[in-house]
Design a protein that fits this description.
The complex is a heterodimer. Chain A contains nine helices and twelve strands. Chain A is an alpha+beta fold. In chain A, a hairpin with a 6-residue loop joins strand 7 and strand 8. The radius of gyration of chain A is 33 Å and the shape is elongated. The longest helix of chain B is centred in the last third of the chain and has 17 residues. Chain B has 16 helices and 53 strands. In chain B, a hairpin with a 2-residue loop joins strand 9 and strand 10. Classes of the chains: A alpha+beta, B alpha+beta. The interface between A and B is large, with 38 and 42 residues. Chain A: Pfam families: PRKCSH-like, PRKCSH_1.
């Protein structure tokens, strides 16, 4: 990207330097490159060759050519396009439906020649701004690329260290290990899934337990129901602190007994039995350790092989990741980066997980575990995908796409949730900075304008 | 013998046991009084001696009004205000004959009579020797008179009866008697231990009934009728089904979660208007009652007798006030109903374009990105919508300060692109002493009250909420004033309003709505429940009009509605689901609404709940583009579905569907002008235009737009073809995509691809389009027109062109519009003024004329009023018989003629 931008920047600067170009007469909306096809006073042949019309029907506000080529300067053809030169900025094509629609699309105002719209020529200003931002980008790219070289260098050294430590047998061992692990992969995934489900169950049970405890506390006469009267006797529940619980307030309390999602259910189905809450049936939750997934053990044979080869667990893991063509992303491994918004703290731990924690209390939500590189084919390392995060009510598991852009610093710049439970995170790192274009290329590029 | 109890027996047992001739009501002919405007007569229930007062009116425009109230009610019974646009003008009734059995009255022309039979009481409306319609012919007139509460034997009797009935009638989930007019869902537990007359319980809710039982009922028989329609809103077929052995159609505005299809259950709105149709006559029954209402339909179809449909209406309270619209044509019935409740509001042109909605567009950046997305993918749109999350904690009239810190910047950005926004304003108000709206409503005493006189509170999106009493005109005036630019901070003239949840929705109320014993002034919610939504939209629309000083037409979308709601804006079919069956049902649901005045109807494109397959989404866009209100919407929990998220091919398909809508906007606008002007529906069942073609009577998989476009959406997954019925013997229809001509009166199999749905233009019509589709309808305002002239087999065609400024009331107040008759006859196409008293200047001109079914002329000459004649160039496609006249160039507002030689 930066290469193309730099090229443009330089060429724009050069164009400015030589002063304003001489305006060449040509039919409205025709780019310089097609001017030869529009010869005044000669019959015009539609660019698709479909028919030939007198020249006075070019730009006469009636569409004669199927390809729209006879009306480059009017809105008559549904498939036409209009060329604005935008001297001082960058030439552009717009759909001809935007000609004289009352909206200024071309910075040189040429698209609104008959609509009454008052457009200002903003090309110079836009050109200046673009050059400025391109300049900044160019500097960032330049420095970022230098940083990237260092990262590559460091990664290489780290790699060599590890190679040495593992006695150069890494490749061979990796093959052995992967073969051995293959049948386990499925089991691992199944395990992961059932673990997620179990976690959800445990969470629900915990909720239930909490509810049950509160329930028992409120059920003064231990008849298995919490009546309005019982609720009203608990003034600590009084929301407006006026010393009494109205019936409405009591009902509200009732609602609060339900877990949030059941409450939404209730809103629509009125499942709640008024204020007579049926006491939740509680099964004693099984004892569990922390909520982290513990991997199923490898079989002894493989394990011993692995143990022999890898003295350090991280080493095994690290080698299993794709850290980019020159391992330039390796430095991100085992790091975490945070972004704080008004409500949440977002945390990106590259090659590991993305999570979200409410600022004012509450538990952390897993927004996805490392999945894979997910950029387009020609730029695979521009995007990371984290998936299989915590499940959403009636929805998918949470997932996060991380967009990487070139920057001097490694930092999360923004997060959003464009679709429910699908997060988007923007992240800058020198590791994606491309080599800046050389002066030669820039000068070469100039001939294209 | 207990007169009280016997009445209950009558009422309780009504549905199955009561036979014609058993009505206990008798007309007391000696009380008959005939004035210039009405006939009055007392009725007596011979079982309990309670007297009723019958009033009969002959109304202008071939209608009869029948009003029945208690002669001396203990206190006034509710009569629905604000729905009729005026006191309907009457015509004199004349007494033709009278004897001890009854009286015969003349209904004026057409040898129509009204016969009042005394014992038992019954009304028959006759034309010649034929009975058009009978009232109380099955003896189901019932009137629970108001009474003083006492624990009598009658009560015990009643309770015993209830018990018996409840045991016997558990096979359905609906009430069977007037005494169960509350909702009788399977979950219902009747408080049999209590006095059900004066108090009922539903789940945990208790309904106090200080006025006791007060329901009313009447039956109507329609000889010769097999098809009845209307009484929306139900997710059901266009032709109403018989309810024998099943649930009646229920009219009670409710916020229904994931509604079921082909079901008579109540939904968000209620219009108590039924149309009957046969090859001979179309009629209508308008039951003006805003309480919970049930409609039973039975029919003898299938037997050897003359067909007959019997209908019974039951309402929980109020009076019997019924308007019988005698047609005889569908058009007549539409005009008659419009003369009572008014016509469709004429929307701003842009509201007929495409709307992009989602719960929710997250923030200003999101709005800007979606707006930009439409431009990048060259898809037009006019409105982007913000659902509840845009507010500061569901406090309507406010903005979330983090997500929408600069609403005016956002609105200005849209305005710069000639686009608009809708924000949601729901009627539940957060109870929060730091919220200005709440404080003002509370201090002015404008909230609905609970039975004890305190402010009624319920649970809704914001948590604890109050519900403004929109039945109070002062409240409505205050509400309207809140839309002023200086009151609604951050609003601008390109921001319009959406009223959702106005049934009203009360999450913790009985059936998710307001308690029936809540008080609106002196009246219970029970009496006027179905009116609440209408009043919310009325007040909001008034607010939008006022903020512009009465200049601009408002645009307000509502979910709840009642008879008359058409005057205030658009409705949509609520929270549907992304399933093929829901796409299908959108057709009969909007057709039913159109028949009873509400033309501006649409369903959420794509389906609200769940996520549509790409194919369903594309098909829904293609269908929605040909339905009146065209808005995509999606639930918060569904993945994003802006049109460009499904690959370039599908983006192109959706773009094409939306572009077809925009090109046709001149025709849509003209149809809405007519809906506004004369009450004719925009989207019509085929039988409306082909009333004698019985093949069309049950059709609801295709429809007409106006008279001239026939649309057959593809609503089957993987559909490769549809069988469309093209009506009209001797008529022809032209495929609008290929210009292929087809004969009428046939079932035609049309192969389809994913690229479009079948649409046909009627031979004999002229449809104006704008071929230059731009990014919003406003951008197309001054663009030229292309006229599509589809010739009938007799080489004739007629159409119209309507133009005004597209957004103000000047068309009405200052007659600033162009309305022209376009006609093709004798090889000449001409444009003549239909509204000589009006004036409007348009820069638009006639760009192109496409004549379908034409032959090749030797020349084409354009004649303009200045006497000039110009030869027009043309192209002729012999294979399709399509003649295209190049660039007439004449202004769209003047007289002109094109002569073909």
């Amino acid at each position: 990207m930066s290469c193309a931008l730099l090229l443009l920047l330089t060429s724009l600067a050069l164009a400015m330097g030589t002063g304003a170009a001489v305006e060449i007469q040509r039919p409205r909306g025709v780019p310089q490159s097609k001017r030869q096809f529009y010869e005044e006073n000669k019959p015009f042949t539609c660019l698709d060759g479909s028919s030939t019309i007198p020249f006075d029907r070019v730009n006469d506000d009636y569409c004669d050519c199927r390809d729209g080529s006879d009306e480059p300067g009017t809105a008559a053809c549904p498939n036409g396009s209009f060329h604005c030169s935008n001297a001082g900025f960058r030439p552009a094509f717009i759909p001809s439906s935007r000609i004289n629609d009352g909206i200024c699309d071309c910075c040189d105002t040429t698209d609104e020649y008959n609509s009454g719209a008052t457009c200002q020529n903003t090309c110079r200003e836009m050109g200046r701004k673009e050059r400025e931002s391109l300049q900044i980008m160019a500097e960032i790219t330049k420095e970022g690329f230098l940083l990237k070289q260092q990262l590559i260098h460091e990664a290489k050294r780290g790699q060599e260290d590890k190679q040495v430590r593992s006695g150069g047998k890494v490749e061979a061992l990796r093959t052995v290990k992967e073969t051995a692990e293959d049948p386990e992969k499925g089991a691992k995934e199944r395990h992961l899934k059932s673990w997620e489900e179990q976690k959800e169950l445990i969470r629900m049970e915990k909720d239930k337990t909490r509810m049950a405890e509160a329930f028992l506390e409120l059920d003064d006469d231990s008849d298995g129901y919490v009546s309005v009267a019982e609720l009203q006797s608990h003034l600590e529940l009084d929301p407006d602190s006026d010393g009494s619980l109205t019936e409405t307030e009591t009902q509200v309390r009732c609602l609060l007994f339900l877990p949030l999602k059941s409450r939404e259910d209730f809103y629509h189905t009125s499942k709640l039995q008024g204020c007579k809450l049926v006491p939740p049936t509680v099964q004693t939750p099984e004892k569990r350790g922390d909520d982290e997934l513990s991997m199923p053990p490898y079989d002894t044979e493989t394990q011993s092989l692995i143990d022999g080869a890898y003295s350090h667990l991280n080493l095994e893991k690290e080698i299993g990741f794709d850290f980019g063509p020159s391992a330039e992303f390796a430095y991100l491994y085992s790091q975490c980066y945070e972004l704080s918004t008004s409500e949440y703290i977002y945390r990106l731990c590259p090659f590991n997980r993305v999570s979200q924690k409410p600022k004012f209390g509450g538990s952390e939500t897993n927004l996805g575990l490392w999945g894979q590189w997910a950029g387009p084919e020609d730029n695979l390392y521009s995007m990371m995908k984290y998936d299989h995060g915590q499940g959403c009510w009636q929805g998918p598991n949470r997932s996060t796409t991380v967009k990487l852009t070139c920057g001097k610093e490694t930092v999360v710049t923004s997060t959003s949730e464009p679709s429910r439970c699908e997060y988007l995170m923007e992240f800058t790192t020198p590791a994606v900075c491309q080599e800046p274009a050389s002066l030669d290329e820039v000068l070469h590029g100039h001939t294209e304008l | 013998y207990d007169p009280e109890c016997s009445q209950y027996v009558l009422l309780c047992a009504n549905r199955t046991s009561l036979k014609p001739g058993q009505s206990p009501y008798r007309a007391l002919l000696e009380t008959l009084e005939l004035t210039n405007t009405k006939l009055t007569l007392q009725l007596i229930n011979d079982n309990n001696k309670v007297r009723l007062l019958l009033e009969l009116y002959r109304l202008q425009g071939n209608m009869t009004r029948v009003k029945i109230n208690e002669l001396k009610p203990l206190k006034p019974r509710f009569e629905v205000p604000d729905v009729l646009i005026n006191d309907p003008p009457t015509e004199p009734l004349s007494l033709l004959s009278q004897d001890e059995n009854g009286v015969v009255l003349s209904l004026g022309a057409d040898s129509q009579w009204l016969i009042v039979s005394a014992k038992p009481f019954r009304l028959d409306i006759m034309e010649g020797r034929e009975v058009l319609l009978s009232l109380n012919s099955r003896g189901l007139l019932a009137f629970e008179h108001l009474r003083i509460r006492k624990d009598t034997d009658a009560v015990k009797c009643f309770v015993a009866l209830l018990t018996a009935l409840a045991n016997g009638l558990k096979r359905t989930s609906t009430p069977f008697s007037l005494l169960f007019p509350f909702s009788f869902s399977p979950a219902l537990s009747i408080g049999l231990h209590e006095d059900g007359m004066w108090e009922e319980t539903f789940k945990s809710h208790t309904d106090n009934k200080p006025n006791g039982p007060s329901s009313i009922s009447l039956d109507f028989s329609l000889p010769g009728v097999e098809h009845v329609y209307g009484i929306p809103e139900h997710a059901d077929s266009l032709k109403l089904k018989t309810t024998d052995g099943g649930d009646p159609y229920r009219l009670f505005n409710l916020d229904v979660f994931q509604y079921e299809l082909f079901n008579p259950m109540a939904l968000y709105g209620a219009i108590p208007v039924m149309l009957s149709h046969s090859a001979q006559r179309t009629m209508g029954i308008f039951w003006l009652n805003a309480a919970e209402t049930w409609v039973d339909i039975s029919s003898n179809t299938g037997s050897s007798e003359t067909p007959q449909t019997d209908v019974r209406w039951i309402s929980e309270s109020g009076i019997i006030d019924v308007f019988i619209m005698l047609g005889p044509t569908p058009t007549d019935v539409f005009s008659q109903y419009a003369s009572l409740t008014g016509t469709q509001a004429f929307p701003p042109l842009s509201a007929l374009a495409y709307h992009q909605c989602r719960w929710n567009y997250n923030d200003q950046e999101d709005v800007a990105a979606v707006d930009q997305g439409f431009d990048e993918h060259d898809i037009p749109y006019d409105f982007i919508w913000l659902d509840i999350e845009h507010t500061d904690g569901k406090r309507y009239f406010t903005w979330d300060p983090h997500k929408f810190p600069q609403p005016k910047d956002m609105l200005q950005g849209l305005m710069d692109k000639r686009r608009k926004m809708v924000t949601i304003v729901d009627p539940h108000i957060k109870v929060d002493s730091s919220y200005k709206i709440h404080n003002e409503i509370r201090s002015k005493g404008f909230y609905v009250k609970n039975k004890d006189g305190g402010d009624y509170e319920g649970w809704c999106w914001p948590g604890n909420s109050g519900y403004p009493d929109f039945t109070n005109p002062e409240m409505r005036a205050w509400w309207a004033s809140m839309f002023a630019y200086d009151q609604y901070a951050g609003s601008m003239e390109n921001m319009y309003t959406w009223n959702d949840m106005n049934e009203p929705s009360v999450f913790n109320g009985p059936e998710v709505t307001m308690h029936k014993d809540a008080l609106h002034g002196n009246w219970e919610n029970r009496d006027l429940h179905n009116l609440y939504g209408l009043y919310v939209q009325m007040a909001t629309a008034e607010g939008l009009i006022e903020r512009s000083g009465g200049v601009e037409r408002p645009f307000v979308l509502t979910r709840a509605f009642f008879a008359g709601s058409q005057r205030y804006g658009a409705v949509w079919t609520g929270d549907n689901t992304a399933e093929w069956e829901h796409l299908k049902i959108s057709i009969p649901m909007c057709l039913s609404l159109g028949l009873v005045g509400v033309s501006f109807c649409g369903a959420d494109v794509g389906g609200f709940f769940k996520s549509p397959s790409t194919e369903l989404l594309v098909r829904w866009y293609q269908t929605g583009a040909y339905q009146p209100f065209f808005r995509a919407h999606a639930h918060l929990d569904t993945p994003r579905r802006e049109p460009w998220l499904f690959g370039p091919e599908n983006t192109a398909l959706i773009r094409e569907a939306v572009r077809q809508r925009y090109a046709l906007l001149p025709y849509w606008y003209q149809l809405f002008y007519h809906a506004h002007h004369s009450g004719q529906p925009v989207m019509r069942p085929l039988w409306v235009e082909y009333p004698q073609d019985t093949a069309t009577f049950s059709m609801d998989d295709q429809f007409l737009l106006g008279r001239d476009l026939l649309v057959h959406p593809v609503t089957e997954e993987g559909g490769r073809g549809v069988t469309a019925y093209l009506p009209g013997k001797g008529e022809v229809w032209f495929d609008v995509h290929t210009f292929q001509k087809h004969n009428g009166a046939q079932n035609l199999y049309i192969p389809v691809t994913i690229s479009s749905i079948p649409v046909f233009q009627r031979g004999g019509s002229i449809i104006p389009r704008k071929a230059r589709v731009r990014r919003s309808s406003s951008c197309m305002e001054h663009d030229p027109y292309t006229l599509f002239v589809a010739l009938s087999p007799k080489r004739f065609a007629q159409g119209e062109l309507y133009i005004d400024d597209g957004h103000t009331f000047n068309f009405d107040k200052q007659k600033q519009f162009i309305h022209r008759r376009l006609s093709f006859a004798n090889k000449a196409l001409s444009s003549r003024n239909l509204a000589p008293g009006s004036q409007f200047i348009t820069p638009s001109w006639i760009e192109k004329i496409v004549i379908l079914g034409a032959s090749k002329p030797s020349k084409a000459t354009l004649k303009t009023p200045d006497g000039k004649e110009n030869l027009l160039e043309f192209e002729f496609d012999a294979s399709m018989s399509v003649l295209t006249l190049r660039k007439p160039g004449v202004n769209a507002g003047v007289d002109w003629t094109v002569v073909l030689q």
